[in-house]
Amino acid sequence: MLKREYYLNKIRDFYHINSLIKILCGLRRSGKSVILQQIIEEIKSSGVEDSHIIYMNFESLDYADITNAKQLNTYIKSLVKDKKIIIYF
């Protein structure tokens, strides 16, 4: 996997600012998921536990029943155990 250091450098300072919503957008198949996986690995290597990371791939059939914002909110709230959670889609 190609390390996307250029893009990681741009977002790295914002990893732990919980008051900000971060959005990574781009064309289909442009490497967004790869960058997000690399961000997860960096966050985990800094000491964040797996239980504080929620990963949801909406192309997976596992989430096909989540069809609106209310269902998504309910699902995420069911996973959050404390205020240290990092939500990752």
Description:
This protein is mainly α and 89 residues long. 36% of the residues lie in helices and 7% in strands. It has three helices and two strands. The chain has helices at 5-11, 32-45, 69-79, and strands at residues 53-55, 86-88. A two-stranded parallel sheet has the order 1-2. The longest helix has 14 residues, at 32-45. The protein is globular. The two termini are 20 Å apart. The mean pLDDT is 86.
Secondary structure layout plus pairing:
Layout: H1 5-11, H2 32-45, E1 53-55, H3 69-79, E2 86-88
Parallel strand pairs: 1-2
Name some characteristics of this structure.
mainly alpha; 89 residues; 2 strands; 3 helices
Give a quick summary of the entry.
The protein is mostly helical.
Helix- and strand-based class? mainly alpha
Distance between the termini: 20 Å
C-alpha Rg (nearest Å) = 14 Å
How many strand elements? 2
